[in-house]
Amino acid sequence: MRNVVVVGGGIVGLAVAWELTRRGLDVTVLEKESRWAAHQTGHNSNVVHAGLYYKPGSFKARMSVAGNRSIVDFARQYGVPVEVCGKLVVATHEREIPALNTLAERAEANGVPAKPISPAEAREYEPEVACVAALRVESTGIIDFPAVCHALVRLLDEAGVDLRLNSPAVAIRAGSTGGVEVATGDDVVQADALVNCAGLHSDRVARLAGLTPSAKIVPFRGEYYELKPEKRHLVKGLIYPVPDPTLPFLGVHLTRMLDGSVHAGPNAVLALRREGYRWGDFSVKDVAEVAAFPGLWRLARKYAFPTGLDEVRRSFSKKRFAASLARLVPAVTADDIVRHGSGVRAQAMRRDGSLVDDFLIETARDQVHVLNAPSPAATSALEIARHIADQVAAEN
């Protein structure tokens, strides 16, 4: 039996471990934190994405459409809360209609059930929404992704998988007779193959393993508010803006969660630490590393003014944040929202300043490295796992 060590205990790492275990491999999972799903998965928006936005034929398009089905099926099979509620993408100005039509075309190309609807039809779903046109996407859902991870951990534990918390990968080298050796500080794990699903630290783990990754992780913090309980009635489901095709992120949106709360956000600002959930979270090492990366400065020249500045202003201004939400639902005011928390997106960036748009998976002998797996990676986790398991099998 082949032995595989998986570095990273978020949803992608756990899904990979489960898929490898189902194929009869002996698996060890190393997670540096004291709990599973501690970072990107545990700070996720909990949306099951439909595959609407992504270039036809890309990993994201194929894996999110398939993952939309497989993650919902998994949740229903193993008792994880999930609801396929659909969403609205709304154009709030005539100039956004061409981009909305492009989304409709992408939906058709990707096999996503979506249809253009009128403003009156949109208000049947969301009585408080403001729009000049809208797209109804039926397969979008909401789920508890940390609960998916807990279910995976339970299945892995029942299968006898070696699950290790508080076990960072501090050194990696090729084994003397093939395979890899991973030092955790307390132990050295020997395996025939390594799968790196370290998320915010995936590029660092790749470098530990001797790989020169083609992209660098640059952390972006997404900050959220939520509607006060007495204002939750303003949003019935999920309301998204039409994304600006010239910008790298989707823009703030409104999402009704499984518990009935309504989350609003996120904005996007550069995090000052790889796991920087607040402005006060600062790492000299992380900031110096990003500041020395030419890709960041090239990105900044392109987006810092006015887009980046607007995001920072919105980070510090509840009034500005509420105004962004009011474009979608005019009844929302600054008095209606309270801070909820933040997540950090592990965004891979190239030296030319371009953001890696698709999932990025690179391989070396006895190694597979997941180097870019932001949203919709949680939706796509089981499909990413199948793809990686195929790659591990190909090395056999």
Helix-strand category: alpha+beta
- Rg, Cα atoms, Å: 21 Å
Tell how many strands the DSSP assignment holds.
21
Taking all residues together, what is the mean pLDDT?
Answer: 95
Q: List the total number of helices.
A: 10
Q: Cα distance, first to last residue?
A: 11 Å
> Can you give the helix content as a percent range?
25-40%
| Morphology call | globular
Strand content: 25-35%
Low-confidence stretches: none
Largest sheet: 9 strands, mixed
Please give a structural write-up.
With 396 residues, this protein is of the alpha+beta class. Helix content is 32%, strand content 26%. It has ten helices and 21 strands. The protein has helices at residues 11-22, 59-77, 97-110, 119-125, 145-158, 202-208, 284-291, 294-316, 318-326, 381-395, and strands spanning 3-7, 26-30, 47-48, 82-84, 87-91, 114-117, 133-137, 141-143, 162-164, 171-174, 180-183, 188-191, 193-196, 216-227, 238-241, 253-256, 262-265, 269-270, 337-349, 360-364, 367-372. The strands form four sheets. Strands 5, 6, 7, 14, 15, 16, 17, 18 and 19 form a nine-stranded mixed beta sheet that branches. The termini are close together.
Gist of the model:
The chain has 396 residues and is an alpha+beta fold.
